[in-house]
Specification:
The chain has 357 residues and is mostly helical. It is elongated. Helix 6 packs across helix 7, helix 9 packs antiparallel against helix 10 and helix 9 packs across helix 13. The strands form six sheets. Strands 1-2 form a two-stranded antiparallel sheet. The protein has a two-stranded antiparallel ribbon with strand order 3-4. A two-stranded antiparallel ribbon has the order 5-6. Strand 11 and strand 12 form a beta hairpin.
Length: 357
């Protein structure tokens, strides 16, 4: 008779209260760990505030008042002693908006040493004119010291040094806390993988600042992926080199049959694990003899030369093919190779011996 009461007690809580800002939010505004905890629960925004600084108050750089951190947006809180509170930030924003029609805010001037500043305020980094020449000026100063153009390694070193101490949270929108931010649960990640937005408006508003470092982050991400791929390929090659040619042929033959039986991707997956071009398997053939089925490898160079109108194979593992991403549930072809001949091979060999073939 008490089922109604039990059902109501089992109803899942849709919102919870953050113990720091006392705000009531839905589940997507908490990390999984914070949502499950029963005490001192912090929303994502408060967690990021704490990561930037454990302080609960800070002095505004403009009005010089000591204020709680809820009076600062996440970006300003991360600026340390240069942080501006909401009223000062709004006042500053009005100055920015009033200067949009002023042609001088879109101009810069070059100093005798080759560095640049904004035309109106002569600042290296001007929030009103939305200009930041810090990185460009570091390049100019370095060129003045060495007396030549900088190498790519020197440019990367200066850029990386310039980015030290800059912490950008990837879990919350970079514009969170500002008027333009709708604080939506859906997040959009910039291709450089360094900043996150919750709306197109946030991305457009922040692009004037982010465009200076987006390319650097994207190149650094690509280099990191390339290093990781080379490391993984080296590990795979060491395992593949430990196999005999007969063992590899067992895996190639099984993948060849699997692909032709409808298991799409078997050849590419097997070739990826054996560190060889997929055409070694896909362009191969099965030969039947006294020892059973024997796999004949495909001639990759010949296939490209004859089938691709004279294209010359450069020896790379994915030449002429897109990058391959292995599936989580893929077959362990290395284990298949190490297992050696299958029961079918043994039965076929015995049968052919009985027929004196």
């Amino acid at each position: 008779m008490s089922d109604g009461g039990n059902n109501s007690s089992k109803t899942k809580t849709k919102t919870k209260v953050c113990s720091q800002c006392n705000g009531q939010f839905e589940k997507d505004q908490f990390s999984c760990r914070q949502w499950k905890t029963t005490a001192d629960r912090s929303c994502r925004l408060c967690s990021e505030y704490t990561k930037l600084s454990p302080d609960m108050t800070r002095v505004c750089s403009k009005c010089r008042r000591g204020l709680p951190r809820t009076d600062f947006d996440i970006y300003q809180w991360g600026r340390g002693d240069d942080a501006m509170c909401h009223p000062c930030r709004d006042s500053f924003g009005e100055k920015v908006l009033s200067s949009i029609g002023d042609p001088s805010t879109n101009k810069s001037k070059e100093l005798p040493d080759g560095t640049c500043v904004c035309f109106q305020h002569s600042l290296e980094c001007c929030d009103i004119c939305m200009m930041d020449f810090k990185l460009m000026n570091e390049f100019a100063r370095k060129r003045n010291v060495v007396g030549r153009e900088l190498t790519k390694d020197e440019v990367d070193a200066i850029t990386e040094e310039n980015m030290k101490g800059v912490r950008i949270s990837r879990k919350i929108c970079i514009m969170d806390g500002q008027a333009v931010c709708p604080r939506q649960s859906k997040k959009l990640r910039c291709p450089c993988n360094e900043v996150t937005y919750c709306s197109e408006a946030c991305q457009k508003h922040h692009w004037t600042i982010h465009k200076m470092t987006c390319k650097f982050h994207a190149e650094r991400k690509q280099k990191k992926q390339e290093r990781k791929q080379k490391k993984q390929e080296k590990a795979r090659k060491e395992v593949a080199d430990s196999l005999t040619e007969n063992q590899k042929n067992v895996a190639r033959r099984e993948a060849f049959f699997a692909e032709n039986s409808g298991r799409k991707g078997s050849i590419e997956d097997c070739a990826w694990q054996l560190c060889e071009h997929p055409f070694v398997i896909g362009g191969g053939s099965i030969q039947y003899g006294r020892n059973g089925e024997e796999f004949i490898k495909g001639d990759v160079a010949k296939i490209f030369r004859e089938k691709m109108r004279g294209v010359k194979w450069d020896g790379s593992l994915r030449f002429g093919l897109p990058l391959y991403a292995p599936k989580r549930d893929s077959t362990d072809w290395i284990a298949v190779a190490r297992r050696g001949s299958t029961e079918f091979d043994d039965r076929l060999r015995n049968h052919m011996e009985e027929l004196n073939l």
